[in-house]
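This follows on from our talk about sequence and fold. I would like you to pick a protein and set down its sequence and fold. Go ahead and set the record down below:
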Amino acid sequence: MNITIDEVQLADTSIYAVYEGEESHYRVTESRKQSMTLTWFYGRSEHESDDLVAGMGPRSNLTSEQVRRTGASAARALLKENKSSAVLIRPASRDVGAASRISAEEELQAWLEGWLYGLYQFNKHRGVTANLQALSLHLRQEDWEGLSREDMEAIIRTVEIRIEGTQFTRDLVNESPETLNPEAFVAVVEDRFKKAPVDLHVYRGQELHDRQLNGLIAVGAGSKYEPAMIEISYNGAESGKESPHIVLIGKGVTFDMGGMNVKIGRDISDARMDMGGAAAVVGAMDILVSRKAPVRVTALIAVADNLSGPDAMLPSSVVHYPNGLSVQVANTDGEGRLIIADALLHAAHLNADKVIDIATLTGNVGAALGLEIAGIWGDQELTADLVEIGERNGERLWPMPLMDEYESELRSDYADLRNVGTSTLAGAITAALFIRHFVAETMKWVHIDMAGTVQYKREFPHSAAGATGYGARLLADYVEKQFRPA
């Protein structure tokens, strides 16, 4: 992650940020200044550099996410041209009326987050097609009015921490299932946090039975790898100061074959990504710990495989939970909610004040909202905070209803609940309603269904195909916001 300040002479390419309605170094039409529009100006000989003009749109309408995606697109464009370094040239506004809606600090952070996000490549399993190209970015302090060199260096460090956590999330989600099974996931997390100031405990084997984590036991029964509940506690809050206890819950199904209700399809390789929620929680914890954030937070990560082995749970099995509820497993492919239920009950034992569960839970949420925004259910105050944060950092959310009228979908003929609805409609809502049954009255709770946002199914100008890293920055930003002075 090579980002420097005032070392312009090292760059072989210049990136010119241009804004609609403003003069620019190159004469380009207003249409080429539109947001996320890139234009190459190639040198006429090997002695002339190639320059890239990056359209930003009107400065007065600028958003952090537009800047972030432009920065990511620019980085990927330079990679494709086999460039090794670039200098970013950003003109200051000379028109008071064209003042940006975001600060110079916010714009710089967004540029750098986008730049590093765009450089991400998952090369672990590539051979001759691996691209190990390095690309550095050089900044000019003169372009960032109001920011000192120390300010810029602090922003660079913040961005590096945030992107390291996001890339960790992306790596986990992209990883292949023979490499990242439930036991390997535990080992990776233990290694990542072994030197961190956290308390880490893994519940597995007999401890799962002792704690009555019966959803995990049932879901993981079909795999040769044992399931686990990972608990990571971090307390950086001021000593003696009473702080809310926030718990982040992540679904970590490292391969979701559907259990005995086996998934079918020409290509189900993205079943390895059913641990996107767990990866987001781990990435968020990585960011918070690395930033030494003054927060109190616990991560609960429920990890299992959902396979159709000889000991796998069967459709019509009943899972009994320690809160007295029994659940008819009408469909073994509705496994995520069974293990989230365990984590929610455990969160109550930890005296959690606020709980966020995040999961790649239903394909139905993608049908409702598409692949650029996740659904959120639950407490209105938590929801409003998370939605506002997502609008700023690009990990967007849309509030969805908890329709009490749909509870009838979860009625069972021989248990307290079914794990899936009786119809094919409103699957994401009935899943949230199911999860709500396991939320203690003492906790504020929201559920995030990120099944649509966990991956890009093809390459985009601002991102490689594969894992998006969705959720890591969203959760970290939310937790930090709760501990900032009002």
About this structure: The mean pLDDT is 94.
